Amino acid sequence: MKTIEVDGIKVRIQIWDTAGQERYQTITKQYYRRAQGIFLVYDISSERSYQHIMKWASDVDEYAPDGVQKILIGNKADEEQKRQVGREQGLQLAKEYGMDFYETSACTNFNIKESFTRLTELVLQAHRKELDGLRLYAADELNLAELEEEECKPEGAENSPKACWC
Ligand SMILES: Nc1nc2c(ncn2[C@@H]2O[C@H](COP(=O)(O)OP(=O)(O)OP(=O)(O)O)[C@@H](O)[C@H]2O)c(=O)[nH]1
Asked: Catalyzes what (predicted)?
């Protein structure tokens, strides 16, 4: 669990790091079902991991809910000297799938906050209607509370500190 702030709203996100190995696939797929946002991650120093993204993407299409938000990540950006996948390749693949793209480094923290914030933003946008409903509800509750407070005050008692017990 982590709390991040997006557009002035504090959002609590639950993060699952699913296993990459084939033998855990059955369990991994179970996590897709409840996901609202997914990072598809490859390693920029491994062409093989980049090639695997197509397989991950088709699994996500098959098992994740329809409105799930996805971002493509090329991790280990700190390993420039071992790079096998160009940034352009990442961008190209992301474009094909209609996803945002970030190169990141879990070692140096490069683009970690940015990518999490962006994915959270996308999830919030996808749930905009529910969110606006919640905002309206909260505003209504507030207005009601203010109204009740007003009604409680006897006339001319606005400046009298002991006029009301509520
Ligand atoms: N240089 C560098 N190494 C990293 C980075 N992120 C992860 N690693 C290293 O890569 C190795 C694998 O990291 P994991 O976090 O186990 O990768 P994973 O994708 O969760 O592996 P799976 O168990 O297959 O799911 C570890 O030795 C990490 O220290 C990074 O950004 N830069």
From this structure: GTP + H2O = GDP + phosphate + H(+)
| 88 located within any domain | yes
For 144, phi then psi, to 5°, come to -60, -45
- Best residue among 24, 82, 105 to mutate for probing ligand 1, ranked by most atoms within 8 Å of CB: 105
**Quick count: other Cβ atoms within 10 Å of Cβ 121?**
17
Residue located nearest, by CA, to atom 7 of ligand 1? 106
With a Cβ cut-off of 6 Å, ligand 1 is lined by 17, 19-21, 75-76, 78-79, 105-107
Q: Is residue 124 part of a domain?
A: yes
Cα of 142 to ligand 1 centre, how many Å? Answer: 47
Residue from 2, 4, 1 nearest 121 by CA: 4
| CATH code (residue 66) | 3.40.50.300
Structural domains counted in the chain: 1
In a domain, 56, yes or no: yes
Measured from the CA of 110, which atom of ligand 1 is nearest? Answer: 31
At residue 52, what is the residue type? H
Q: What whole-number percentage of the chain has pLDDT above 90? A: 59
